[in-house]
Design a protein that fits this description.
With 343 residues, the protein is α/β, with parallel strands linked by helices. It has nine helices and 16 strands.
Amino acid sequence: MQIFHRYAELLERLDDKGHSYEILGCAPDGQPLVCVRTGGDKTPAIFISAGSHSTEQAGVSAAMELIDTLDTEHQVYIIPCRDPIGLNGFAYALSLSLGEEPQLVDKEAAVELLRARGEVLHEEEDLLVALIGEHGYFSRVRHGWSVERAPALEPLRGRRVYCMAGSEKIEGSAMLQRAYSLIVDPDGQILHINRFHDTAWAPVEARVTRDLMAQVDPALTLDLHEHGRDGFWFSARHQGTDDHQQWEQRMADAIIGAVEAAGTQLMPDDYLPGSFFTKTRNSVYWLDPRKRGEGFNLSDFAALKYGPAFTVETGMPTGFANRVSASLLAARTAIGVFEQRYL
């Protein structure tokens, strides 16, 4: 399975394979946000997305594999990477402010560069926050933060923040190999780019995704993610009609059955991703976004507006090929049940 070290490699792969793509918009650095249409002409359509968190590269590779190999009569629209800047890495993210990519030998060198070239806004233990040019930089990912809770971050309001992220233990996402993207919205909330699908103000990555979904009206949405522990799990969404709910449940049962039969490691029996999830069986969780208190993510929004939607989560500490295979199996299984619905 190919690991993409730069977004240009992903676009080159699409070109080499003869896949045409639509440019939905451009990231702030000018890189195109692309969508590939594959499958047949039958409706309703299927929508697949990956790469909203740049450290989760197995989902990106799985999406690219689906572009090459997915066999269905239905129209399929795939955005293989929703964060091109983050995919390119932390040095690249720094180049947006510095004008050139610095040579970073390790995280310590990156932290020292933030001190030397940036305005340090906040520092505590292992977290340093600096402003360089138009962008903020964190020495690690931090969620659940806001300008209201940390007034020193006021200069970041309305800006993008790039975080050092990754681990040498994670194939495809070593430390500094990716930059985890956050956005400080006009209200001062610090959220990642997958939290703006139901908000009036939204970054370009969420806007173009919403526009595409409004155009193609997908009856199945799959968002391919990863998480930091061993084991596979996925989240489903309660549907607004009995018919949608019945098929969401059928797809959920089929996904976990296929993954379990393949011998993929599941989560421990006592695992729950958060207080806004309910568990129906091991590694199958139903998410209520209203209890989370943040903006809707892609699957939340898709379930609210269009129908069945799932977020697939593979365990990052497992091998890259295993993570890609689990994502592919989950996606293909869901699509197989979807096809039965529309025979």
